[in-house]
């Protein structure tokens, strides 16, 4: 069913009672976007309609300071705006290290646990759990599925849950995401704001068609596009307000300082397989336990798949000159030599200056 088939000529969109979602990471950009919505009425009017809802999905490998930011200044800003801050988590007790308050999986609203409902799948409860479950360590050689499994899917499952509870007047068939069509018909397409900044235009999600053209001999033939998600393409509109106004990462930092807020650490998983040598050096300096655990996970992976020979590689996906896997230990040794001129403070300043290790689109 398409929206054209779903709508009729008498359809009137009730924007006043609709919802605009903001996907939170609690990094610099999404915080600047939230602050902009709070303090700039014209900006808020231009980019939101109806109620604003903040939603963050737990990857299970956030920096400890990210959790501090979430229930600290970000929650304070949200409460001052009168908007709700949701956090969905599927971490199990054994996955927790720094944040005991999130031992209970489920839905958290403004810092309080309100439901045991889980939106993460059993195969993606957290990044660490995935590494243990598959005896792996992550690598850029693998398909980029972590953002989808730990962020995108849980967030849109939450949106479905939220719409069902918030809009009981909607009539829909309870399967195949029909709640999204019912909502779109009455309240307009679901708006999801993403905090990408200027310079990250390549990360914007590109609209997809249900088919694509491939070359078959001298001809082009039309085949189904397996990446096409019908309910999403027809009912969800992702927006990137910071890109629209030309605010880059340095701009978000300057804006936060100007408005009297702290600058949080960039948000990305501590064990992101798309890490850099300097990221690794920072991790060893400030969270050596995380680094050592990752080394162990990489070692277990290399042992398990030793029969693959040269195809068996570590986090960086490289080989040493002697054709042995280039490991995290090798990478740290290189980083210490390459950046020996940088003090811990200089490394920390550099860490604050850039964003994600990976360039996932969503």
What does the secondary structure layout of this molecule look like, with pairings?
Elements: H1 3-6, E1 19-23, H2 28-39, H3 41-47, E2 51-57, H4 64-81, E3 84-89, E4 106-109, E5 112-115, H5 127-133, H6 146-166, H7 178-187, E6 190-194, E7 211-216, E8 219-224, H8 230-235, E9 236-239, H9 241-244, H10 249-258, H11 277-286, H12 288-304, H13 328-338, H14 344-353
Helix pairs in contact: 2-3, 2-4, 2-10, 11-12, 11-13, 11-14
Please name the CATH architecture of the largest domain. Answer: 3-Layer(aba) Sandwich
- Strand fraction equals 5-15%
Percent of residues in helices: 40-55%
Shape: globular
Summarize the model shown.
The chain is of the alpha/beta class and 362 residues long. 41% of the residues lie in helices and 13% in strands.
């Amino acid at each position: 069913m398409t929206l054209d088939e779903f709508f009729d000529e008498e359809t009137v969109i009730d924007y006043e009672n609709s919802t605009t979602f903001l996907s939170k990471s609690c990094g610099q950009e999404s915080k600047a976007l939230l602050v902009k919505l709070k303090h700039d009425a014209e900006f808020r009017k231009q980019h939101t309609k109806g109620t604003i809802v903040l939603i963050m999905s737990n990857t299970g490998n956030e920096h400890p300071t990210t959790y501090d930011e979430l229930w600290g200044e970000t929650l304070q800003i949200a409460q001052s705006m009168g908007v709700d801050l949701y956090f969905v988590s599927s971490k199990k007790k054994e996955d927790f290290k720094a944040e005991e308050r999130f031992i209970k999986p489920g839905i958290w609203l403004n810092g309080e646990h309100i439901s045991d409902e889980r939106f993460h799948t059993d195969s993606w409860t957290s990044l660490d759990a995935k590494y243990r479950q598959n005896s792996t360590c992550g690598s850029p050689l693998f398909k980029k599925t972590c953002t989808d499994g730990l962020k995108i899917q849980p967030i849109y499952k939450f949106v479905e849950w939220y719409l069902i509870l918030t809009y009981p007047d909607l009539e829909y068939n309870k399967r195949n995401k029909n709640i999204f069509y019912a909502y779109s018909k009455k309240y307009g397409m679901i708006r999801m704001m993403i905090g990408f900044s200027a310079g990250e235009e390549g990360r914007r999600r590109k609209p997809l068609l249900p088919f694509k053209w491939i070359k078959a001999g001298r001809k082009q033939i039309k085949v189904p596009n397996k990446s096409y998600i019908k309910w999403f393409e027809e009912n969800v509109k992702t927006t990137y307000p910071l890109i629209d106004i030309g605010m880059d990462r340095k701009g978000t930092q300057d804006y936060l300082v100007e408005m009297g807020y702290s600058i949080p650490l960039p948000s990305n998983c501590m064990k992101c397989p798309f890490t850099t040598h300097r990221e690794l050096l920072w991790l060893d300096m400030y969270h050596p336990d995380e680094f050592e655990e990752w080394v162990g996970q990489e070692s277990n992976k290399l042992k398990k798949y030793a029969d693959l020979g040269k195809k068996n590689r570590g986090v960086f996906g490289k080989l040493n000159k002697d054709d042995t896997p280039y490991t995290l230990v090798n990478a740290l040794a290189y980083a210490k030599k390459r950046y020996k001129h940088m003090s811990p403070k200089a490394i920390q300043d550099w860490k604050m200056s850039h964003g994600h290790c990976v360039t996932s689109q969503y």
